[in-house]
Specification:
By secondary structure, the chain is α/β, with parallel strands linked by helices. It has a single domain, classed as 3-Layer(aba) Sandwich (Rossmann fold), CATH 3.40.50. The chain has nine helices and seven strands. The strands form two sheets. The chain has a five-stranded parallel beta sheet, sandwiched between helices. Strands 6-7 form a two-stranded antiparallel sheet. Helix 1 crosses helix 8 and helix 3 packs across helix 8. The longest helix is centred in the last third of the chain and has 23 residues. It is globular, with a radius of gyration of 17 Å. The structure holds zinc ion (ZN). Zinc ion (ZN) binds next to helix 9.
């Protein structure tokens, strides 16, 4: 059985990484549904952009439009209520004493995968696609490859159904993520990523940079900005004019 006859569920936040993952999945699977989580994140503007991104991405390739299935948004306010972090409270975004940033929501991706697995089970999808990345990750232990692999085993055993967890960005940096977007969907997908996706932790969409909207100062903005700059350099080195 090839991937082209199977269904996938994409953990889709509306950020840059999960949007590239959505395109990656649309390029491969017969049907692709999306799941998002509302846990009271400060940058809820990210969630607001999801319908627009889905609408636009479906127009980029005819078969992407045919493959894109329903969207599911799960309310997970309990997660926000029990986690005292800079993503859910007015806490400064900085590195804590234990080396983990204050934006860390403990167990977040484990909980996301458990809910995504439960939904995928019902929807007849065994492929979960998510944007975790160990390469330039911010020290979140639940973004690590081994964590994701452990979840794949746990879901497969716990529901007695074979799940495959795909993380296409795990071993590439932000510059390579821009390059991957370009490779999958050309300039149109790249434009969509820059214009519509949101990564800024502060939810700032008042300032537009080459790499998209954001405050330009928070860790997520700095990562995106430096990734964009590195990608631009690589393109120039490789004589790729992007046309
Ligand atoms: Zn920012």
């Amino acid at each position: 059985m090839t991937l082209a006859s199977e269904n996938a569920l994409v953990l889709f936040s509306g950020g840059q990484d999960s949007t590239v993952c959505l395109a990656w999945a649309l390029d491969r699977f017969a049907q692709v549904e999306t799941i998002g989580f509302d846990y009271g994140q400060r940058h809820a503007v990210e969630l607001d952009g999801r319908p627009r991104i889905r609408e636009r991405i479906a127009t980029l390739r005819p078969r992407w439009g045919q493959r894109l299935g329903p969207d599911h948004v799960l309310p997970l306010q309990t997660l926000g209520a029990i986690s005292d972090t800079a993503l859910t409270r007015e806490v400064a975004i900085e590195m804590a004493d234990d080396g983990v940033p204050t934006t860390f929501v403990p167990g977040r991706n484990l909980i996301f995968f458990a809910f995504a697995g439960a939904l995928a089970y019902r929807r007849g999808a065994r492929h979960l696609v998510a944007g975790m990345c160990e390469t330039d990750y911010s020290g979140y232990p639940d973004c690590r490859d081994n964590t994701v692999k452990a979840m794949q085993v746990a879901l497969t055993l716990g529901m007695d159904r074979r799940f495959v967890l795909h993380t296409p960005l795990m071993w590439i940096d932000k510059a390579a993520t821009f390059a991957l977007a370009y490779e999958i969907g050309g300039k149109n997908l790249l434009d969509l990523v820059v214009e519509e996706t949101h990564s800024c932790y502060l939810g700032d969409r008042s300032r537009r940079h080459d790499w998209g909207y954001g405050c330009g100062e928070c860790p997520a903005c700095r990562l995106r900005a430096s990734g964009w700059a590195a990608w631009m350099e690589r393109r120039i080195d490789g004589n790729d004019d992007g046309s």
